[in-house]
Specification:
Low-confidence stretches: none
Largest sheet: 7 strands, parallel
Number of helices: 8
Helix content: 25-40%
Bound molecules: fructose -6-phosphate
Order of helices and strands: EHEHEEHEHEEHEHEHEH
Mean pLDDT: 97
Radius of gyration: 17 Å
Strand order of the largest sheet: 1-10-9-6-2-3-5
Distance between the termini: 20 Å
Structural class: alpha/beta
Number of strands: 10
Strand content: 15-25%
């Protein structure tokens, strides 16, 4: 694993965006695995700026997002569909036909998840997967526990994750307690993975990766098995002098 420690969030966003930009430049029809949450917002701004300056072309790029709340309609402003449109897709020239976010409004989650896996496979697999990390060490919504799931699946969210997500919801909104998410295998099958962590609240989770040990109690620690992972973290998340 390559570890890049940067000063602050601004630098983290630039370095993270550059990891993705390099793949898009080298392979204009690449397949991106994308994440939501606070962490990638700055990187998405940098990528949108690169597109605006004519430095990047997303016209042949495909994307698959990690996860979506369940149940959740795509047009709900709390949905990850909505988030991706607001923060990235509406600002670049990606073909709307080429963007994929798990359907949080489907009736049959098993069928939807199997279809999502099949779509990723038929697209040729993910070239670069962007990840944030939960303060409990989750990636996607693969929550710490006695076991993890390999493929895209429906999952309950832990109290800690719901608590962390509460900041995005107003008082009268219900915080979702379930999601559909890529599994650990889906993530680990990506050819390259870039995981970004910012702020002191991520320190324990980052330490879980850096320990070099693998445990289902810190799903991100399984990234130690992957041959091409870049961990980008700011000094606060890294937490070592
Ligand atoms: C989002 C996702 C989550 C987040 C994680 C960190 O698609 O899969 O695993 O990456 O919860 O969220 P932030 O960046 O908001 O701290």
């Amino acid at each position: 694993m390559k570890v890049i420690v940067v000063k602050d969030y601004e630098e983290l966003s630039k370095v993270t965006a550059e990891q993705i930009a390099e793949v898009v430049r080298n392979r204009p029809d690449c397949v991106l695995g994308l994440a939501t949450g606070s962490t990638p917002v700055g990187a998405y701004e940098v990528l949108a700026e690169m597109y605006k300056k004519g430095e990047l072309d997303f016209s042949r790029v495909k994307s698959y997002n990690l996860d979506e709340y369940y149940p959740m309609k795509a047009d709900n402003r709390q949905s990850y569909h909505y988030f991706m449109n607001e923060n990235l897709f509406s600002k670049i020239n990606i073909d709307p036909e080429n963007v994929h976010v798990p359907d949080g409004d489907c009736k049959d989650t098993d069928a939807m998840c199997a279809d999502y896996e099949a779509q990723i496979r038929s697209a040729g697999g993910i070239d670069i997967q962007l990840l944030g990390i939960g303060r409990n060490g989750h990636i996607g919504f693969n929550e710490p526990g006695d076991f993890l799931y390999p493929d895209t699946h429906k999952t309950d969210l832990t109290d800690d994750t719901m608590d962390a997500n509460a900041r995005f919801f107003s008082e009268d909104e219900i915080i979702p307690n379930a999601a559909v998410t890529m599994g650990m295998g889906t993530i680990l099958r990506a050819r390259k993975i870039v995981i970004a962590a910012s702020g002191a609240s991520k320190r324990e989770a980052v330490a879980g990766i850096l320990s070099g040990k693998i445990t289902t109690q810190c799903p991100a620690s399984l990234l130690n098995m992957h041959p091409d992972v870049v961990l980008v973290c700011d000094e606060e998340a890294y937490g070592r002098d």
